[in-house]
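We emphasize that the prediction below concerns an isolated chain of 658 residues; any contacts that depend on oligomerization or on bound cofactors are therefore not represented. The input was used exactly as deposited, without trimming of termini.
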Amino acid sequence: MESLWKDEEAKSYESDSLGLRVYTSRLLGRESSLVLHGGGNTSLKDTITNFWGEKEEILYVKGSGWDLASIEKPGFPAVKLDVLKRLAKLDKLTDAEMVKQQRIAMLDPSAPNPSVEAILHAIIPLTFVDHTHADTVVTITNNKNALKMLEEIYGDTVLIIPYTMAGFILAKKIYEMTKDIHWEKYEGMILLNHGVFSFANDAKTSYEKMIRIVTKAENYLAQKKVSVPKAEISPPVKEDLLSLASIRHWVSKIKGSPMIVKFNNSPEAKYFSNLANLDSIATRGPITPDHVIRTKLIPAIVKDDIKKDIKNYADSYQKYFARNTNGSQKCLDLAPRFVIWAKQGICSIGKSVSDANIVSDIVEHTIQAIQVGEQLGGWQALSEKDLFDMEYWELEQAKLGKSSQTPEFQGKVILVTGAASGIGRASAEYFQQNGGTVVGIDKNPEVTSIFQKQNLIGIQADVTNTKELQESVYSTVRLFGGLDIVVANAGTFPPSRSIEEMDEGIWTKSIEINLNAHQRLIKECIPFLKLGIDPSIVFIASKNVPAPGPGASAYSVAKAGMNQLARVAALELAPYKIRVNVIHPNAVFDTGIWESSVLESRAKHYGLSVEEYKKSNLLQVEITSQDVARLVGNLAGKAFSKTTGAQIPIDGGNERVI
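Result of the prediction step, given as a token string:
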């Protein structure tokens, strides 16, 4: 591992010590093999002038919710150093009380909570302290031969601390162990099964000590000729998206809410899922106990019977809780957070795309560490009880009691056609803003730049092209594990023609886009919707279905056919609890089909000005795409959870319809 320190880069942070603390923290955070998703912490001891004009020693320490890779100065709350040192001398202190006392000792009460390891940072008597969960070092410590190997690597240049639960207990143990030592003689400190500390009186030295400690471990593995096995290319495995959707279905059922599944079928993931001793090697525990908060103790392993294998995991988790609980803890949900899908790859699971990505990153590092650990004499994680204590840490349990409103569509996967503008775009954005994970498809290539978020992406596809439409559905399932809601919105408004004057091309195009494409869409989606969570289809039809107008036969007939398609679908899909409903908008003028020429033509046809035509309804209101999107969301959500086969107008009241 090489130092990323650059003198020129460092100068831009050198306005004060805290600036350099930010700089080296970011250097650590850039390297995922040192720090993953909020893991690790850093600190700085400094003297400031307080509110009363007095000099006071404080500890700047990484705050809760900040990631070292992107941390700023506000991410380091300032805590009175003397208070932290006094806390270390107490015989007993609950972690909840520790958090409370740390907050009381903060200079800015609006700053984030200090790290739970703030006391430990305080008792190390050097200015800069760095803490990481370096993969290589922790891999070596998760081994029955750990102490012997650490001696071979470091001799007496580092302090070795037996595993102890993070928080006050760990700080107290190290305080007692190090009362009479000279910290300056050590390169750093290794906490077995946990991580690495380095420390110095300047930022660069502390950072580069961390790099040296990790490099020595890497060199040791190289000397032993130990590395992650090269993923051998196995015979191609046929893609099985329905089974992927089934995994998501049963995990979500056990969790009690829809979950996002990120499927990793890379050569490395497939190789691991093909290991002969998979049942043993994958279920010994995580690299570091911190990970259990994200990944739980072990994964579920799925082979032939998905439902049975996921249920067996849930039963085993319930027994694990019963074996280890002290009676005061509240059992978490029984669902796994990652699944090893034998011969296929690995599924990482989260309530959102962000959560699933974090789990995926942790698992990727975990399977590498496990395979290296096996070659070192056997992967051996912490005991079940130690890992349980971390998973059910009082600070984590306290979070369960805090009420938080879950966005209605969190964990749901939604597909919207015609998503680049108008009703489609408004609907896609409505679902995303309310927690959903959305794929918007449109033939307009701009859809891919319009939607560029983790949980809102665009796919260019022509709904009249069966192959492109099918691939869009498959891509949605590949990306997020399944499908729950479909908004069949793509459409076109053809030029006004009487039946006598109707051009065959206009008629055929309208039928193809406004009817046939929707039949093909739901045909492709139904197998996945059967495995969805509270699945729903919403068709965007038209006022022209109940009240067609002259000159609009191509449009009205196609939309009427779509309406009948939806009614039949409601009948056929009800046994699978798939709801199918229809919305009949009218005069929604901020959509792609309402070009100015079309709008002027229709207004003229009715003898109205454009502005009069826009509000030509009983309530004399204009209907917008956002109005329709809200109704789409309600139809697909809880408000209409017991409604199917409905046809709902959103038109301000149309006299002809009424």
